[in-house]
Amino acid sequence: MSELIDLTAAQAAERIRAGEIAAAELFDAYRERAARDELNAFTWVADAAPEANGQSGTPLGGVPVAVKDLFCTEGVPSQSGSKILKGYRPPYTATVVAKLAEAGAPLLGKTNQDEFAMGSSNENSAFGPVLNPWDRRRVPGGSSGGSAAAVAAGLAPWAIGTDTGGSIRQPAALCGIVGLKPTYGACSRYGMIAFASSLDQAGPFTRDVHDAALLVRHMVGRDPRDSTSLEYPGEIELPRAEDLKGLRLGVPEDLTGSEGGIEPGVRESFEATIKLAEGLGASIEPCRLPHAPQALSAYYLIAPAEASANLARFDGVRYGLRVAGDSDLVTMYSRTRQAGFGAEVKRRIMLGTYALSSGYYDAYYGTAQKVRTKIAEDFRAAFEQFDFIVTPTSPCTAFELGAKMDNPLAMYLNDFLAVPMSLAGIPAISIPSGLSQGLPVGFQLAGPAFSESRLLDAAHALEGAIGFDGRQARR
Amino acid sequence: MSTGTVQYEPVIGLEIHVQLSTRTKMFCGCELSFSDPPNIHTCPTCLGLPGALPVVNEQAIHFGIMIGLALGCDIAERSLFHRKNYFYPDSPKAYQISQYDVPLCLGGHLGDVRIHRVHLEEDAAKLNHLGASGRIHGSDRSWVDFNRCGTPLVEIVSEPDIRSAEQAREWLILLRTTLRQLGVSDVDMSQGSLRCDANVSIRPAGTTELGTKTELKNMNSFAFVAKGIEAEIERQKRLLAAGEAVVQETLHFDPITGSLTPLRSKEEAHDYRYFPEPDLVPVLATEGMLAAARADLPAELPAERAARFERELGLHADTARLFAFRAELGDYFERALAAAGANGGAGLEPAELSNWIAPLTERIGSDADPARSKVTPEGLAALATMVKAREVSRDAAREVLTLMVSEGGDPRAIVEREGLGAISAEDDGLGEIVDRAIAADPDAAEKVRAGNMKAIGPLVGYVMRETKGRADGGEITRLIRERLG
């Protein structure tokens, strides 16, 4: 059994294709592990393997996938980590989930997350925090903490999550796995319970870069149901590169300087990885992203503004929680939302409502959009000189449960290095670069829009040189 | 300060919502419906389910561009949808997707009223309340029917160029006819596919500064639009006459009592927190889309038709507008005109023919479509031609028309059957009757002879009575003057 679990998804798919193992056997092995989940990574696990219907002939071979709670799955709880959607079973399935099922990755289970994807530690879930498989006293990161922990702990061969301002890359870093945020518009958002529509993007969590490429190539594509989705130019290639010859990597001083609050252990790992990259033939030079330090401020206006509208539909009228209002509509609204939303969600709804209010719109939302444009221009300029921008993914390794819950600003700073790419809408990948005091550190590479194939290739070469061993978390 | 002698001028602007008759809703694939059982035309998008996304209906954009072109607007190459945030059970997302500061169409005019803007948005769901109040507050139970939710709407906003309640009514009818001719909407006020709000203020005549305006809602017929605006103008005049100020507020018009009551401030005091809809990309009106919309425009719109009626056919301006704005009258008139031409027409002028439409509508009901009456356009043309040829007097022709309305048929046959043909001096001894009239009233005859033409009345009246209206008044006058000249 343990042998099955040690296979990467691609290896497992290959064995199924070769007839060495049955898809149902693999599904059951993971289903049993997911059902025994001690990390609180899952909020729902499938009862049984789906009927075998020629999955061995599909590109993903029947290797099951764990799916972040906020993806709508027909008839299956889709609660976005919130009490207000407790028990909600949608009548339809998100495009990305449907595409993966069609490609041969059936639904293994739904994973825990910060409520409505708002958080960086998974402690904001109405269904309790997720524990980090490397150290159960610590957080897995967020908001896609359940997906990251499940893959790292071997409870799922791979998983999908969403990244709005780091919610794939940061938990991937803290759990020692690979996480990719694709170009905005590459994957359909249809059926993703929205946090911030102009930033939300689905992406894969995998044990290695090859698996990430294999999974994401079946997620992308224009969806007529999502106007902001785009036809992916060409196909995402499976990575093969063993070196980085001729690649120019830029290290943005504006992010990696003292402002970022990067921990010494993280910096050490980052610099060691830079050395490896040089050894593989890359040139490394400092670069400028002058507006990137303002990204977090802009993000915490734009994302809450959009969220304040996206979450207004949770009003107790049609679905989810309703707390009676004693015959008064407004009382019903306020009691329902008071009881249904957690503290962080309420904080962001208030921030966003304020930022959009008459008389404040220009100063807050309007200015934030201008900053966003400047940041996108910074990246565009940087990519004229560099193939990729590299940074640590997160300034810190996994922190202890509760350590930052009383200090929202400290929590927000976790995403200092991840948010600029989100605002620019460009792809970025986090790969494990080593351990610091026994905890994983993530290395981030970001490229221009639709550069996923090249990005995965570079990450693949680097991964080979790093030789990270994640088996410890899969005990 | 005395205000008793101040003359006030009303300043009125209209905001019209029109449901488009597209096949599907504004942002999803659900079919439009107007009388189906509740909640059968719904999907995740129009129910506002978590994760569902809107997609713009291309036909709605096409219709929007057609309306913009018909109203002479500038079509924006790139326009935006915004979210208009408010909580209410008829709004499942708790925001309406609408256009805000970058609408599809700007400027333009219809008739002599300028258009401010035309934009696209989605309709709300329909609420039904059980209980005496008929409103959500105090109702025992409320239901939401989402069939209507997401129906495409255009909002047409006029400039405040209207100066009377009657002008507002007439302009609204022109707009309805224009939209109906475009084929973009059912434009039925009683069904709610055409809804009109009015912004009303008054100011001393001759001044240019705008007074404080109020917004009138719920005027769901053309008559109520005129009635509501009239009532509001009078209310504002009374306020100012009493030295009070008009308060900017939204008023609900009650068509039964004619009263105007302020909506609760809670229902109107909104900060909608508009921001660009991040789920949609900008609407790009390409050259191809403009060409397609232009190709679908009718050959002649009502405003152009009115101009043609007046300029080319020489109709009175009021008649020209009436026929153009009420297309069924114009269509009927033009068919009658064609028939008159085909029959030689006896030199019948279009304006003379047009004078027979009003007598017809008086007889069939002023709002009725003459094409649905028993009087055919050919019949009406024949009657007008007979009058022109002096084959029947004007008065007798009116009698014939009454008979045509009640039983149909050819006017010539009716004239013959009823013996209503004109009596002329030569054939029918009209001269003898004139002689008798002079003999019967020597007093009047003397006065006419002395040059007092007013005295001719009784003599003419005598002849009319004797001929039962079959003689032509002008002919009678001529014969009398011949004898007394």
Describe this structure in words.
The complex is a heterodimer of chains A (475) and B (485). Chain A contains 16 helices and eleven strands. Chain A is α/β, with parallel strands linked by helices. An eleven-stranded mixed β-sheet of chain A has the order 1-3-2-4-6-5-10-11-9-7-8, sandwiched between helices. The two termini of chain A are 12 Å apart. Chain B is built from 17 helices and 17 strands. Chain B has 485 residues and is an alpha+beta fold. In chain B, helix 3 links the parallel strand 13 and strand 14 (250-253). The N and C termini of chain B lie far apart (65 Å). The model of chain B has no long low-confidence stretch (mean pLDDT 91). In chain B, the strands form four sheets. In chain B, strands 1, 2, 6, 7, 8, 11, 12, 13, 14 and 15 form a ten-stranded mixed β-sheet that branches. Chain B has helices at 58-70, 165-182, 222-241, 265-268, 287-295, 302-311, 317-325, 327-342, 350-354, 357-364, 377-388, 394-407, 411-418, 430-440, 442-449, 456-467, 473-484; strands spanning 8-19, 74-75, 78-79, 82-85, 95-98, 105-106, 109-110, 113-122, 126-130, 141-145, 152-158, 194-204, 214-217, 250-253, 260-262, 275-276, 283-284. In chain B, helix 1 crosses helix 5 (287-295) and helix 10 crosses helix 12. Chain B has three domains: 8-295, no CATH class; 302-418, no CATH class; 430-484, Arc Repressor Mutant, subunit A, CATH 1.10.10. Helix content of chain B is 39%, strand content 17%. The interface between A and B is large, with 45 and 30 residues.
Structural topology:
The complex is a heterodimer of chains A (475) and B (485).
Chain A (H helix, E strand, L loop, with lengths): L1 H4 L3 H9 L5 H13 L6 E4 L19 E4 L26 H9 L3 E5 L33 H8 L6 E5 L5 H7 L2 E4 L19 E6 L2 H8 L31 E5 H4 L7 H16 L3 E5 L7 H16 L18 H12 L2 H14 L5 H24 L2 E5 L15 H5 L6 H6 L3 E9 L2 E8 L5 H15 L9
Parallel strand pairs in A: 2-3, 2-4, 7-8, 7-9
Antiparallel strand pairs in A: 1-3, 4-6, 5-6, 5-10, 9-11, 10-11
Helix pairs in contact in A: 5-6, 7-16, 10-12, 10-13
Chain B lengths: L7 E12 L38 H13 L3 E2 L2 E2 L2 E4 L9 E4 L6 E2 L2 E2 L2 E10 L3 E5 L10 E5 L6 E7 L6 H18 L11 E11 L9 E4 L4 H20 L8 E4 L6 E3 L2 H4 L6 E2 L6 E2 L2 H9 L6 H10 L5 H9 L1 H16 L7 H5 L2 H8 L12 H12 L5 H14 L3 H8 L11 H11 L1 H8 L6 H12 L5 H12 L1
Parallel strand pairs in B: 13-14
Antiparallel strand pairs in B: 1-11, 1-12, 2-6, 3-17, 4-5, 4-16, 6-8, 7-8, 8-11, 9-10, 12-13, 14-15
